[in-house]
Design goal:
The protein is an alpha+beta fold. It folds into two domains: 115 residues, no CATH class; 91 residues, no CATH class. The protein contains eight helices and five strands. A five-stranded antiparallel sheet has the order 4-3-2-1-5.
Length: 218
């Protein structure tokens, strides 16, 4: 597999931290230690080729880190709108772990560890950043279902059905075309959209949905 310099740095750092933990011999078998040291010696190679045993060792090590980082992820829709810098750094680290694992053996890792190796938290953060930069907001008058749309630079749009739970792991911007325009009866400013949503009865909508949209529109 071909790794970027940053991925090599993270791989080296993670393995060394594991080997330098107090009494690491109690947690790692002789074979694991040997495999990790062998990987470190070959990191400078242009292409890193791992044996099945090395792949398993690396996957288990990353799995521990991914699980620990996952516990610190935003736990609610609303909490994604205000992520502390230290958590963002951990999320970037997890993204790199997933990227490395996808290069090792994607099918094996997904089946053995049940990870979605296509997921990247940076994609969610980038989407939220674009939502905050959208100047044109679309509102539908058709109740089947009511929708709100965010238009980015008149080229892309992201739509949310107001009566459905928002899942940031699956939403993304798409081309802003006449089909999307036909769905909405009017376009308004961010301020106007904020004032309209502020008057909504939040209990009529999925938990955190209105508060999330209000936070994005601020």
């Amino acid at each position: 597999m071909n790794l970027t310099d940053n991925q090599k740095r993270i791989l080296e750092k993670t393995i060394n931290e594991s080997l330098r933990q107090p009494n690491f011999e109690l947690y790692l078998s002789g074979r694991q230690i040997q495999n990790f040291k062998s990987i470190l010696l070959r990191l400078s190679n242009e292409k890193l080729i791992l044996s099945k045993e090395e792949t398993l060792c690396l996957a288990n090590l990353f799995s521990e880190r991914i699980t620990k980082i996952g516990h610190k992820y935003p736990s609610t829709l609303l909490s994604w709108t205000n992520i502390p810098l230290d958590i963002q750094e951990l999320m970037e680290e997890k993204d790199e772990y997933l990227e490395i694992l996808s290069k090792v053996n994607q099918e094996y890792i997904e089946n053995a560890f049940h990870y979605n190796l296509k997921f990247r938290s940076k994609n969610i953060i980038e989407t939220l950043d674009k939502l905050r930069k959208c100047d044109v907001i679309l509102l539908s008058r058709n109740p089947e279902p009511y929708k709100i749309g965010f238009v980015f630079q008149q080229r892309e749009a992201l739509l949310f059905p107001l009566e459905a739970q928002i899942d940031l792991t699956v939403v993304s911007f798409s081309h802003y075309d006449k089909t999307i325009r036909a769905m909405f009866s009017e376009s308004i400013s961010r301020k106007e959209a904020y004032e309209i949503l502020l008057k909504c009865k939040k209990t009529n909508y999925p938990k955190d949905s209105i508060d999330f949209l209000l936070e994005i529109l601020k």
